[in-house]
Design a protein that fits this description.
- The complex is a heterodimer of chains A (about 230) and B (about 775).
- Chain A has 7 helices and no strands.
- By secondary structure, chain A is mainly alpha-helical.
- Chain A has a domain of about 70 residues.
- In chain A, helix 5 packs across helix 6 and helix 6 runs antiparallel to helix 7.
- The longest helix of chain A is centred in the last third of the chain and has 35 residues.
- Chain B has about 775 residues and is α+β, with helices and mostly antiparallel strands.
- Chain B has a 5-stranded antiparallel beta sheet with strand order 7-8-9-10-27.
- In chain B, a hairpin with a 2-residue loop joins strand 11 and strand 12.
- In chain B, helix 8 packs antiparallel against helix 9 and helix 19 packs across helix 21.
- The chains are: A mainly alpha (about 230), B alpha+beta (about 775).
């Protein structure tokens, strides 16, 4: 139950934050007021409008078109299949894992569980290859920090969408590592019951972090690129 | 009156009431104390040197004439409240409001009618209420009293006694709760003696005899129903219908007529095992291991404890909530070893009796959610075809004497892993029911075996008829001769119980015609040898033997005709006690061998039906053929118009089709009856999973895929077949697929480990890089 509540709150929080980021960076009316209540009102109106617009636009045809337009299909063959493996396995892992964790009291079992385990292996392998071959493109070069009060000033921290995206990527990779580790360790004759319980919970929360990081990354990648 | 005045009067009244009630309260407390309901703290068992009292609460003087047997109610009752004890687990089934987790039912087993009927006064699935199948407390006591500790149905209420005047409670007395059955530490306690006395209907004497307190003679079942215990000895009969009497062991009594009971507070294991033994059917005693707890020095009663109410802790999860006895939660596997209740909360006292904390290293959590502890730790390990066991109560074990009491049937199977309470899988014992029944709408109402037997007439007795013939012939056999019947691949010989035993003849063909013979050592000679009655030089000894055989056969009760022997158109028979030899009439020209002459017809000594039936069943455990069942169903149908009769065996329901043929189908009433098992607990090295996941998770593991065939008294190929996984409510296909996945598991683990290592290393490096740059270390080192 606790996990379900945390998942719901996290998802709402991340979606609201990303939406607000878009609202803040794309809408001119945000500069018209400094009153939080007014701002919140405008944000709510914008969000409602965008939701209706998005809902109206949503159709299988549009989804299919959007899918076909993805740059993924234009990648070289190895790279393409590597990403298909990663995205496909991650989508199944997230869907099966969260669905059973939230809606099925018994948890994941049967053929979906077998699929989950197999997809987990594929995900770990794809992720490892991506980190090896693509990780270098996600290393930023921050300046050395100086010990000053500016460290605590959010305005001067240099938090940009690009940096958040990089952080999201590495957070996704870190969560992927923890997912692989928490899947592997319970399979080895190492952990007792308490350890198994801990690993089980850790696996779930790593999955949540992984999903949220992926969401942030995809949002910033997709909509950031469009804006630029 | 003023308010103050009313208060003053009220206070005065209250004070008077307190004063008036105070002595009564003290008396009640004293009474309670006399019953020892409150423990004084001492951990020793007091020496029980006590006077015996009979069922009239009169003191027993062992040396007086015809003393009555001792009564636990009045001998033990003064210190231990008898009524409280009567409600205990072992005695209170008839009146219990809660049934608890299903346990082993009483199984009415009657091989002749092919009845294996699970019975219980508790409302357990698959078991029939004895009252619903027409069994009175008296019937139940005589059937199962052998393994009852007294009380309950053996000590019925006065209403029950009056409601069934045909019962002989007045002669037998009631079998009170037998305290000694469990608490007697003396080696004289004899469960076999108890069973013997119960069978003799010496119910009120059974505890005295079994406890070794006195010697009991006489047999109440042979007395007239008008006999009363105060009538004393039966003066008309000193040999057969001898009235029961007690001769106390006077050496055990002191001058005050007190006797010493060597008692245990906690019963020893032997006392429990007298009624609760379970052993693999074909295992030698020396190789059978005890429960790991017993081996570690624990007694049954260490965990299965109780207070004066004798509500024994059964030790299953959920018992504490069900009974309100919170202590019970400490004596489940989980409670003792993990300190957890059934919900997994650490709310009970762990480690009682020194229970070690299990490591369960590497065991995925799902096993704790879906499986009872007993799955991996209790009962025999799963094997092809399951393990056939015998239990004390079902198979009448532990009763020793000249006669053999123990039986291989009914067939009890374990461990059948089935889904039980809390959707957890647990190992169970299983028995397939078998009985005759009348359909009442959709309800199946079992028939009493006696009623079936009466309706079936001769159909169920071919063995008896052949046995009677062989027993009759054995009267005239020499010491080294045994009369036998050879049929098919088997030789049938009479046994000491008046039945027949079949032994296989190596190399014999199944279609060998029947032959009555004489076994001498290894050889079987024809009862009627090849010879020519008309020959001048015939051996006169042959005809002398013929005369003996014919004389013997005249003693066969219910014979269909006059015994005769036909040899080459010559008929030998007895006329006025002498052998008569005459030419066989033309219609008997084909007759040969021993037989019966009835209404001018020659009948073989055993009918074709009898031969076919006994030969088919020989060498099997089955006691009925399909032909017999069809015939009995036909007879039952003729006995009651518009009634639908069925027979259940091997998981199928059989009924006569409109074409007169036997047809079978599945039915809920034919479903096997299961009850969870907990013992024997195996040592940890023998637990499932000790050798790894593939103990259960493999493509063909016995745990999931062994097959169970329905067993029953009916010899038929139409039996129910189930896989082990089906009892668990699991799909066999998935388990096979899942099991096969364990072949690639080691490789999967390696791949996952490599991936985790690579990803982890790069994340670590990226982290170091970030840290190095933030700290300015990397830039500084790269400067010239």
């Amino acid at each position: 139950m606790m996990f379900t509540i945390i998942v719901l709150l996290s998802v709402i929080g991340v979606f609201a934050s990303l939406a607000f980021h878009r609202f803040w960076t794309t809408r001119e009316e945000t500069g018209a007021t400094i009153l939080y209540a007014e701002l919140l009102k405008k944000y709510a109106a914008w969000l409602a409008l965008r939701t209706i617009q998005a809902a109206r636009k949503t159709s299988p045809k549009n989804w299919w078109g959007a899918g076909k337009a993805l740059p993924l299909w234009r990648l070289p063959i190895l790279e393409k299949w590597l990403y298909i493996g990663l995205y496909g396995s991650f989508a199944y892992l997230a869907a099966s894992g969260f669905f059973f964790a939230i809606f099925i009291p018994r948890g994941l079992y049967g053929f979906p569980l077998v699929g989950h385990v197999m997809a987990g292996g594929l995900f770990a392998a794809c992720l490892a290859l991506i980190v090896v071959f693509k990780g270098r493109y996600f290393i930023s070069v921050p300046k050395p920090v100086n010990l000053s009060l500016a460290l605590f000033d959010p305005g001067k921290m240099g938090i940009t969408a690009d940096r958040v995206k990089l952080a999201a990527f590495w957070l996704f990779v870190l969560a992927g590592f923890l997912l692989a580790l928490t899947a592997l360790l319970p399979m080895l004759p190492i952990l007792r019951t308490a350890g198994q319980k801990f690993m089980f919970e850790f696996h779930r929360y790593s999955a949540l972090v992984s999903a949220l990081a992926a969401t942030v990354y995809v949002d910033l990648e997709a909509f950031g690129a469009r804006r630029s | 009156m003023s308010r103050a005045g009313r208060y003053a009067l009220g206070a005065l009244g209250f004070a008077l009431a307190v004063l008036a009630l105070a002595p009564a309260g003290s008396a009640a407390a004293a009474g309670q104390d006399a019953k020892h309901t409150v423990w004084d703290g001492n951990r020793t068992t007091p020496a029980h040197l006590i006077p015996l009292r009979d069922e009239n609460d009169a003191p027993i003087i062992p040396t007086e004439t015809n003393p009555l047997p001792y009564s636990a109610r009045f001998t033990c009752g003064p210190c231990h409240d008898y009524k409280t004890i009567q409600g205990g687990w072992h005695f209170g089934a008839m009146t219990a409001t809660k049934s608890g987790r299903p346990g082993e039912p009483w199984i009415r087993f009657d091989p002749k009618t092919g009845t294996v009927l699970p019975l219980s006064y508790r409302k357990w699935p698959g078991s029939y209420d004895p009252k619903a199948v027409g069994l009175t407390a008296w019937d139940f006591t005589l059937l199962f009293g052998r393994h009852l500790p007294g009380g309950g149905p053996a000590e019925p209420s006065d209403e029950e006694v009056l409601a069934h005047p045909e019962a002989r409670w007045n002669v037998s007395g009631k079998a009170e709760v037998n305290c000694l059955a469990c608490h007697n530490r003396s080696g004289r306690q004899d469960p076999s003696e108890w069973a013997k006395q119960v069978l003799r209907e010496n119910l009120r004497w059974a505890a005295t005899a079994a406890g070794g307190v006195g010697e009991v003679g006489g047999i109440a079942s042979r007395l007239k129903e008008t006999w009363d215990v105060y009538d004393g000895p039966n003066l008309d009969d000193h040999e057969w219908a001898v009235a029961p009497s007690v001769k106390y062991r006077t050496v055990d009594f002191d001058s005050k007529h007190r006797t010493f009971f060597d008692l245990n507070y906690q019963p020893s294991d032997d006392r429990c095992l007298a009624c609760h033994s379970v052993s693999p059917k074909d295992e030698a005693r020396w190789s059978a291991d005890a429960d790991v707890h017993s081996t570690a020095g624990l007694k049954c009663a260490d965990c299965h404890r109780n207070d004066l109410g004798h509500a024994i802790v059964r030790g299953y999860e959920g018992e504490a909530a069900e009974t309100g006895n919170r202590t019970a939660g400490s004596f489940t596997c989980r409670g003792c070893h993990l300190g957890e209740n059934e919900a997994g909360e650490k709310s009970v006292v762990p480690g009682r009796l020194g229970a070690p904390l299990p490591k369960h290293t590497g065991l995925p959590l799902v096993h704790f959610k879906r499986l009872a502890c007993t799955v991996c730790h209790s009962g025999p390990k799963p094997k092809e075809g399951f393990t056939r066991v015998r239990t004390s109560r079902a198979n009448r074990l532990g009763i020793y004497g000249i006669a053999t009491w123990a039986t291989d049937l009914p067939a009890v199977i374990e461990p059948v892993y089935a889904k039980g309470a809390g959707n957890k899988i647990a190992p169970n014992r299983l028995v397939w029911p078998a009985f005759w029944a009348k359909m009442s709408g959709k309800e199946v109402v079992p028939l009493k075996p006696e009623d079936v037997e009466a309706a079936a007439g001769d159909i169920l007795t071919p063995e008896e008829r052949i046995a009677q013939t062989l027993v009759a012939l054995s009267q005239v056999m020499a010491e080294d001769e045994i009369p036998v019947l050879v049929s098919g691949k088997f030789v049938f010989a009479p046994n000491v119980d008046g039945g027949i035993d079949a032994s296989e003849r190596p190399g014999a063909k199944a279609d060998t015609p029947a032959l009555w013979g004489i076994r001498k050592g290894e050889d079987v000679l024809a009862l009627v040898p090849e010879f020519d009655p008309a020959a001048a030089d015939k051996d006169p000894a042959v005809e002398t033997r013929f005369q003996e055989f014919l004389q013997a056969l005249t003693t066969v009760a219910g014979a269909p005709g006059q015994p005769v022997i036909a040899v080459k158109k010559t008929l030998y028979r007895l006329v006025d006690g002498s052998l008569d030899m005459s030419e066989a009439p033309a219609e008997l020209a084909e007759a040969s061998g021993p037989g019966w002459l009835a209404e001018g017809k020659f009948l073989t000594l055993a009918s074709d039906f009898d031969l076919r039936t006994v030969t088919a069943k020989a060498g099997t455990e089955q006691t009925l053929t399909e032909e017999q069942v069809a015939l009995v169903l036909g007879t039952l149908a003729r006995s009651a118009e518009n009634a639908d009769f069925v027979y259940i065996s091997g998981g199928r329901m059989f009924r006569l089709g409109k074409d007169g043929k036997l047809a079978s189908k599945s039915d809920a009433a034919a479903e096997p009856v299961t009850w969870p098992l907990a013992h024997n607990v195996r040592p940890v090295q023998q637990s499932l999973g000790w050798n790894g996941c593939t103990d259960c998770h493999s493509g063909g593991s016995d745990f999931f895929f062994t097959k169970l065939r329905g067993t029953g008294p009916l010899l038929t190929a139409n039996v129910e077949k189930r896989s082990a996984a089906s009892f668990m409510g699991l799909g066999g296909l998935f388990q096979r697929f899942f099991g096969l996945s364990f072949i690639t598991r080691p490789l999967f683990k390696v791949v996952l480990a490599v991936c985790a290592f690579v990803i982890g290393s790069l994340v670590f490096l990226a982290g170091l890089l970030l840290l190095g740059r933030l700290a300015g270390f990397i830039e500084k080192r790269s400067e010239p």
